[in-house]
Specification:
heterodimer; A: 403 residues; alpha+beta; FAD/NAD(P)-binding domain; eight-stranded mixed sheet; 27% helix; B: 81 residues; Folate-binding fold; 12% helix
């Protein structure tokens, strides 16, 4: 039996053309766009919502990530926000009735030097203080949790210790998108695929709708949930963003017959390894140093990342790279998301999801929906675009799986 | 593999270089000095298309130079078109 049957998918698409006007138009039918629509409809009764995408649902970065869910960040505001998201993921299957293949694995974040060991100890204490379950563990415990590890790190990267995030998990990325799409469509939200937004309709400084090849659509509020090309959309509205678009590459190997239970990351080497439900080893690393919109994989990346992961996990040398993919991440200059009002009436934004967008889908969507419906949302308050003008940047680069 | 033309060393593999970002630009439409500072410190043009940017030939001549690149194709173009 194939346990990955995708014919179980039942998306009750609306028929016909988009209406001429909606209360809320969301640009981008990825995880964040659809989750926002879903929570607007199911939590706040706002169902006159339309989600537009230039491609099919989840075709962008929602389909090009490494599906890791964790909340072990380095600043209190982030830990609280991602912890909410992690808890919402735990109950998402019950709520939507869709199997998203949520699997709680635990995440080991290794340190290979005294200074990074200190970083991980700090992380564990900070997480505990803000409600995330993280402990600092020693090499013996790491070996128990993950027998495949070479604790000497090839002699060059000895493992000093690690922060262990008990609730670290993975879920199937496209199933998450489908779950939200299904829930939103059932609640009466319109979702139009292959309908690119080509411009914004403005009345003075105010954004009042979007232009598409299927006609203009008026909107009370336009939300940009675009991944990658968000700067273009923001420029239409006259908003400057602290975003640079970088490519992030990841790859899977052929199936590894044994169980590899946890998610393992390395603070010094900057890579992470986990096992997919199919048994493949999923390996990813930091994003490319230079800005690019090109969704291409490079041989030098595969080489460098393989070398790093084989250093810690010698068994990987016997596996083969099966396929690779590249997402284009909108990385904010302070490595935290930008979500909420933009200073332009009628135009809101959820962006800056860089390499940390997938784990944030439930909390990002529900908080943005709350902000649209009620005018305030506590968890995303620190992450507004206005923070840069107020010298309140949320700098947290060491938690972003990058350096 | 991507090859980059260094003005001193000629065409060399891409991995030898380090990226130095684009030239910072703050639009003239922003007039308030504080707002200009914020823009200069944080905001990015993030152009999807041709950009003029700085590169450092780290594993070669170790000199900075200016390059024109299309960020949608990663194609390097002549600096003076």
């Amino acid at each position: 039996m194939n346990e990955f049957v995708e014919t179980l998918l039942d998306l009750p698409w609306q028929t016909g053309e988009p209406k001429s006007s909606y209360d809320v138009v969301i640009i981008g039918a990825g995880g964040h766009g659809l989750a926002t629509a879903y929570y607007l409809a199911t939590r706040h009764g706002i169902t006159n919502v339309c989600v537009l995408d230039s491609n099919f649902i989840g075709a962008g970065n929602s389909g090009r990530n490494t599906t890791i869910i964790r909340s072990n960040y380095g600043i209190p505001e982030s830990v609280r926000f991602y912890q909410r998201s992690l808890e919402m993921y735990q109950t998402l299957e019950d709520e939507t009735g869709c199997w998203i293949m949520h699997n709680q694995k635990g995440q080991i974040w290794m340190a290979h030097s005294v200074s990074t060991a200190r970083t991980e100890q700090t992380r564990a204490l900070m997480n505990q203080a803000c409600g995330a379950k993280t402990d600092y563990i020693g090499p013996d415990e790491i070996k128990q949790l993950c027998p495949q590890i070479d604790l000497t790190g090839g002699g060059r990267y000895p493992v000093y210790g690690a922060s262990y995030h008990h609730e670290g998990a993975t879920a199937r990325h496209d199933r998450v998108v489908w779950a939200y799409a299904q829930g939103a469509l059932r609640a009466g939200v319109h979702v139009f695929q292959h309908t690119p937004v080509t411009g914004l309709l403005k009345d003075g400084d105010r954004v009042v709708g979007v232009q598409t090849p299927r006609g203009n659509i008026a909107a009370g509020t336009v939300i940009s949930a675009v991944g990658g090309d968000v700067t273009t959309v923001a420029n239409w509205a006259g908003v400057r963003l602290p975003i640079r678009t970088h490519a992030l590459q990841a790859f899977v190997t052929n199936a590894y017959a044994q169980e590899f239970a946890p998610i393992v990351s390395s603070n010094d080497l900057v890579f992470y390894v986990s096992q997919t439900p199919r048994g493949q080893m999923l390996i990813g690393a930091e994003y490319d140093r230079f800005a690019s919109y090109r969704q291409a994989t490079s041989f030098s990346y595969l080489q460098a990342c393989s070398k790093k992961s084989i250093t810690m996990f010698p068994f990987l040398a016997k596996l083969r790279i099966l396929r690779s993919w590249t997402g284009i991440c909108d990385v904010s200059t302070d490595f935290s998301p930008i979500i909420g009002h933009t200073g332009v009436d009628g135009f809101m934004i959820t962006t800056g999801w860089g390499t940390w967008g997938f784990k944030a889908i439930p909390a990002g969507g529900s908080q943005l929906a709350e902000l649209v419906a009620t005018g305030s949302a506590t968890l995303i308050e620190p992450f507004g675009l206005q923070r840069f003008a107020h010298e309140a940047a949320m700098a947290d680069p060491s938690s972003a799986g990058t350096r | 593999m991507l090859w980059v033309e260094c003005p001193n060393c000629g065409s060399r593999p891409f991995e030898e270089y380090r990226y130095g970002n684009v030239f910072p630009t703050t639009p003239d439409t922003i007039t308030d000095p504080d707002a200009r500072n914020v823009d200069h410190a944080w905001m990015q043009d993030n152009v999807g298309g041709e950009t003029l940017e700085r590169w450092f030939h780290e594993a070669g001549c170790r000199r900075w130079f200016t390059a024109r690149r299309n960020t949608r194709t990663d194609e390097f173009l002549p600096v003076d078109p």
